[in-house]
Design goal:
By secondary structure, this protein is mainly β. The chain is built from 1 helix and 9 strands; from the N terminus they run αβββββββββ. The chain has a single domain, classed as Porin. A hairpin with a 7-residue loop joins β6 and β7. It is elongated. The termini are far apart.
């Protein structure tokens, strides 16, 4: 009888303990926030402002004083990034401005106008950055390409030239979510002097510009 009583008491105690434990609140596991991974392809749109100084050499007679090419930019971009285990990110991207600034340069009177029109422009560059979860600061370097048409109202001729020049800059990209990011970017571009002949002899023109861009990207 004694051992039977001990067994019954032990059984009741275990049942009571189990019931008490079942009533205790279960502590939820902490949710670990997802860390952004920048590896992959992306594409998007960008807009911004082009602030350019037109460089010149060889002009004689009536010449433009401090000519400039300024205005808005809008276009498409695409690229690819790879993130290493130490959070270093390398990548490459292309910019294709669809809307480009134009300008009219007057050299001293009515009808003495030169109309500058970039017919094509593009940038191919690489970038190197350090990821801090959703933040990605980076530097960039590459090449800019342009084809420029200049029409002279004075002589009626319209020479064109193609340019290739270095591009450097820096930027800061932020991931709004895993597949969507915004990017603030500065690019400095230098296009070398190229020869134009408007009917009065050879003249050379190039450009140095600062470009301030904002883009919205979708990352695959």
């Amino acid at each position: 009888m004694f051992f039977r009583g001990v067994a019954i008491v032990g059984l009741l105690a275990s049942l009571t303990t189990g019931a008490f434990a079942a009533d205790l609140p279960v502590k939820a596991r902490p949710i670990t926030p997802q860390v952004m991974n920048w590896t992959g392809f992306y594409g998007g749109i960008f807009g911004g402002y082009h602030d350019g100084d037109i460089t010149q050499q060889g002009c004689t007679g009536l010449c433009a004083v401090n000519p400039r090419l300024t205005g808005g930019l809008f276009g498409l971009q695409a690229g690819y990034d790879y993130q290493f285990s130490d959070n270093v990110v390398i990548g490459a991207f292309a910019l294709l401005p669809l809307v480009r600034p134009t300008t009219t340069i007057n050299i001293g009177g009515p009808g003495l106008d030169f109309h500058v029109k970039p017919r094509f422009a593009a940038v191919l560059a690489g970038r190197l950055g350090m990821a801090f979860d959703r933040w990605l600061p980076y530097v960039l370097a590459g090449a800019g390409f342009a084809n420029v048409e200049v029409h002279s109202d004075v002589t009626g001729v319209t020479p064109t030239n193609s340019y290739v020049g270095p591009v450097v800059g820096a930027g800061l990209e932020y991931a709004l979510m895993q597949h969507v990011s915004v990017d603030f970017r500065y690019l400095y571009q230098s296009l070398p002097l190229k020869t134009y002949d408007f009917g009065g002899g050879a003249e050379q023109y190039g450009e140095r510009s600062s470009n301030f861009l904002f883009s919205l990207n979708y990352r695959l």
